[in-house]
Write a structure and sequence with these properties.
By secondary structure, the protein is α+β, with helices and mostly antiparallel strands. It is built from 28 helices and 31 strands. It has an eight-stranded mixed sheet with strand order 6-5-9-3-2-12-15-14, with no helix packed on it. The protein has a five-stranded mixed sheet with strand order 17-18-19-21-20, covered by helices on one side. Helix 19 runs antiparallel to helix 20. It is globular. Bound molecules: phenylalanine (PHE) and zinc ion. The site of zinc ion (ZN) has 4 residues, from helix 3. This is Aminopeptidase N. It holds the Pfam family Peptidase_M1_N. Its EC number is 3.4.11.2. It is an enzyme of class 3 (hydrolase). Keywords: Aminopeptidase, Hydrolase, Metal-binding, Metalloprotease, Protease, Zinc.
């Protein structure tokens, strides 16, 4: 493997030069785009150090200082830098480069795909457009002039406000944009193409009218409406909750089909993966609608948390991401059921973030060492980062938290700052000591709370003892005790009100004593998942049944059910013949019968996922785990067959609605279908649902259970689905995914064949993830097949993606590097594939970093 050296947080130094303005002229062309970049550069302090600009994958055409061309005796060019020496205190630097957008399959920098030119600069893509100080603490005011063919590219977009436009010779035209807010280059954006435009306006509290423009592929206008409504809801919410108003006169969103991530918060010009913009009743599921709204909100919220106040360096990524995820989660919770929203967040943390913490890429939410920044857009930085913000919210309370946010903007608007600055604002505004709490930023790994208790009926006292325990992480970091907020409730069956509140665990072991407890209580802990930790307390089935019904925290009611299921799944892994108690079924029967809302009931009925269980069991045999889950599911299905069928039928309606209740009904109906699909009669039921479906949620649920149970109708419904939806990229992604989930020993052959399908293209990240990713992440049975055919398949795809799109490759390698969760046999097979990858020629920095970590 090639050597790449990591960068360290501790090595941070302020930049030697500032760049105050950037004037770009970009003449778009498929293979030879010319970028002229005129910068005002100012030396910081007195020194004679060279100006070292970042730049990659482009051709340098010329360098001018104060309008005079300099030659290569005055500058030095390397693979990744341009160094210029002997510079005055302040000067105009003009750099011209040539780039090739069509050849750019990595989708970083300026690229052309599906007839659209677009840019992606976060984290370090701007250096593929021009030579620059590509670091977030260099903030400049940008003016961008775009020149392109008028017929093919009627829309030329960049950040800020449009200041000029006009026609040129040869059917060319130009548009000039000016963004008055100084920003780091990662927020720069440019888009050129031919779109349909959905326009609207939003009037801010202070009465300014903002133009809202949503650009979608021709013919897709109606599919953009939900995104537009979501944007307006987000704008209103941020004003109401945080007094944060939008600041430019125009807010643009462009949907593109080729995008490495979900979306990007470029100032005034968000670029979105079309998956998180386009949605209509027939082609999008209820989850899709939810996700579009959440991602629209997330990017919008970045305008303050990320853009107005940005990161000093990339190690501080969680400053903007953890905070913005927290904000979008709060928004979603306000728009929908807060408990169900919280459950969705927590499932991701437990199934995937915990796995990351337990794997070779374990890192704190503020990493200390990075080789390829793109590898750190992780569940840890985003989701655990959000949990850390949430804990501050829990510890300080809503009012003090909001005062902290206000102080943060008072102090830092227009600056590039650190996580320490954020915590300082929180601490100062609330007059709370957060020094121990801050360790959450520097410590990796998932803490475990070991809880024991003791009740003394003579004195009516109850003692709760909590020990913090830290499993060794891959980075071998030494652990300190954290400040962990623990929501608790003591459930008693006497008539006294339950005691409850917030415990602050700060020491290795701490005991709390409660008086006036008249009967032995049952502790309900970590209500609403008050900290991202594992909990170890010996609840018996009876306890869990009690919690499922009596815990006042809805999240805890759900969680008790999950614990009950998880306990049996663990036992079934070792003993598939285990006699399961009818009690499990009766607990669920109660769930079905009670009058909670159906979305919540649906969550209560869903078993813990393979990933969540794998994160909770050491060195598990993947096949045994899949079977254990299936046995439990089959048992529940048989016991509650009548109730499931009844519920299912009662929820089948011919009208389609999209309000919260209708969504909850569909969720519950499809969970019932999922259980019923394990029983006799499944084929007819599923076929029926498929045929009758008048919305994507139901249609997709039907083909999914057909795949998961390899039902007789599987091939037919898949063919029919593909015929109905061919050409609809987003729906065909779903079809590819269902193929990858097929529970059949020939699935590797099937998906290998699909690589040649006319609608498949490995260059498109959504497609690659839909087929290859879905197989590796979610077809646990056949990905982990003991003949290693699943691993081998992934290896072959990664070898291709390594050169086509390293970022996508680096995401899809995740299931292979997390081999530690599995038994030795599987570990060896997985490592074998990783070894093969290390031998590839021109291995990307992205993969090298992960392979190094995994094989170390
Ligand atoms: N900053 C984007 C977000 O969280 C994510 C992103 C990162 C997109 C890197 C593209 C590249 O909203
Ligand atoms: Zn973000």
């Amino acid at each position: 493997m090639t050597e790449f050296s990591p960068r360290y947080l501790k090595d941070y130094q302020v930049p030697d030069y500032k760049i105050s303005t950037v004037d770009l002229t970009i003449e778009l062309d498929d293979n030879k785009t010319i970028v002229t970049n005129v910068m005002n550069v100012i030396k910081s302090g007195e020194h004679q150090r060279a100006l070292v600009l970042d730049g990659e994958h482009m051709q340098l055409k010329s360098v001018l200082i104060n309008q005079t061309q300099i030659d290569s005796s005055q500058y030095q060019l390397s693979d990744s830098t341009l160094s210029i020496t002997n510079l005055p205190e302040q000067f105009t630097l003009t750099i011209t480069t040539e780039i090739n957008p069509v050849a750019n399959t990595a989708l970083e920098g300026l690229y052309k795909s599906a007839d659209v030119y677009c840019t992606q600069c976060e984290a370090e893509g701007f250096r593929r457009i021009t030579y620059f100080l590509d670091r977030p603490d260099v903030m400049a005011v940008y003016t961008t002039k775009i020149i392109a063919d008028k017929t093919s590219f009627p829309f030329l977009l960049a950040n800020g406000n449009k200041v000029e436009q006009g026609n040129l010779a040869n059917n060319l035209h130009y548009v000039t944009w000016h963004d008055p807010f100084p920003k780091p280059c990662y927020l720069f954006a440019l888009v050129a193409g031919n779109f349909d435009l959905l326009s609207d306006t939003f009037t801010t509290t202070s009465g300014r009218e903002v133009k809202l423009e949503l650009f979608v592929d021709k013919g897709n206008l109606s599919r953009g409406e939900h995104a537009m409504v979501s944007l307006k809801k987000s704008m209103l919410w941020d004003e109401q909750q945080f007094n944060l108003e939008y600041d430019l006169d125009i807010y643009m969103i462009v949907a593109v089909d080729f995008f490495n991530m979900g979306a990007m918060e470029n100032k005034g010009l968000n670029v979105f993966n079309s998956k998180f913009v386009l949605a209509d009743d027939l082609s999008a599921t209820d989850d899709d609608f939810f996700n579009v709204e959440a991602v629209i909100a997330h990017e919008y919220f970045h305008n303050w948390t990320g853009n107005r106040v940005t990161c000093r360096d990339w190690f501080q990524l969680s400053l903007k991401e953890g905070l913005t995820v927290f904000r979008d989660q709060q928004f979603s919770a306000d728009m929908h059921s807060s408990t169900v929203t919280r459950i969705k967040n927590v499932k991701i943390v437990r199934a995937q973030q915990f796995a990351e913490d337990a794997g070779p890429m374990a890192h704190p939410i503020r990493p200390e060492k990075v080789m390829e920044m793109n590898n750190f857009y992780t569940l840890t930085v985003y989701e655990k980062g959000s949990e850390v913000i949430r804990m501050m919210h829990t510890i300080l309370g809503d009012d003090a938290f909001k005062a902290g946010i206000e102080l943060y903007f008072d102090r830092h608007d227009g600056q590039a700052v650190t996580c320490d600055d954020f915590v300082a604002a929180m601490s100062d505004a609330s007059k709370t000591d957060l020094s121990q709490f801050k360790l959450w930023y520097s410590q990796s790994g998932t803490p475990e709370l070991i809880v024991s208790d003791d009740y003394n009926s003579a004195t009516n006292t109850y003692q709760l003892t909590i020990e913090q325990s830290y499993p060794q992480t891959h980075d071998k970091q030494e652990k300190q005790n954290l400040h962990i907020p623990i929501n608790f409730e003591l459930i008693t069956n006497d008539n006294e009100p339950n005691q409850g509140g917030l415990l602050h665990s700060k020491e290795k072991t701490q005991t709390w004593t409660f008086d006036n407890v008249c009967s032995k209580p049952l502790p309900a802990l970590l209500g609403n998942f008050s900290a991202p930790v594992k909990l170890n307390y010996h609840y018996n089935d009876q306890d869990l049944n009690t919690l499922m019904v009596d815990a006042s925290d809805e999240f805890n009611r759900w969680d008790a059910g999950q614990k009950l299921f998880a306990g049996y799944i663990k036992q079934l892994v070792n003993n598939p013949e285990l006699d399961l108690p009818l009690q499990i079924a009766s607990a669920l029967e109660q769930v079905l019968a009670c009058n909670a809302d159906n979305a919540f009931k649906a969550e209560q009925l869903i078993l813990p996922s393979f990933d969540e269980m794998a994160a909770a069991i050491v060195e598990v045999n993947p096949g045994s785990l899949v079977r254990a889950i299936t046995v439990l599911k089959g048992f529940i299905a048989e016991q509650l067959q009548v109730q499931f069928l009844q519920t299912y039928q009662s929820l089948c309606t011919s009208e389609f609605a999209k309000d919260g209740q209708a969504i909850g009904n569909r969720a519950l109906k499809n969970v019932c279908l999922d259980y019923l699909s394990l029983l006799d009669g499944a084929n007819a039921l599923v076929l029926n649902q498929f045929t009758d479906a008048n919305n994507m949620t139901d249609q997709l649920a039907a083909i999914k259970v057909a795949a998961l149970n390899d039902l007789a109708c599987f091939e037919d419904v898949m063919t029919e689905f593909a015929t109905q939806w061919q050409g609809n990229t987003l729906v065909m992604d779903k079809w590819f995914t269902i193929n990858a989930l097929h529970n059949n020993e020939n699935v590797v052959q099937r998906i290998t064949g699909l690589l040649e399908h006319p609608e498949f293209s490995i260059d498109n990240p959504n497609r690659a993830r839909a087929l290859i990713g879905a197989f590796a992440f979610y077809n646990s049975e056949y990905f982990h097949n003991k003949d290693a055919s699943g691993y081998e398949f992934l290896f072959e795809q990664l070898a291709k993606l390594n050169t086509i799109n390293p970022q996508v490759a680096s995401r899809l390698i995740t299931p292979l590097i997390q081999f530690k969760s599995f038994d030795n046999n599987h570990q060896q097979l997985m490592k074998g594939q990783l070894q093969k990858l290390t031998k590839l020629e021109s291995l990307s920095r992205d993969l090298i970093e992960k392979l190094d970590a995994a094989l170390k």
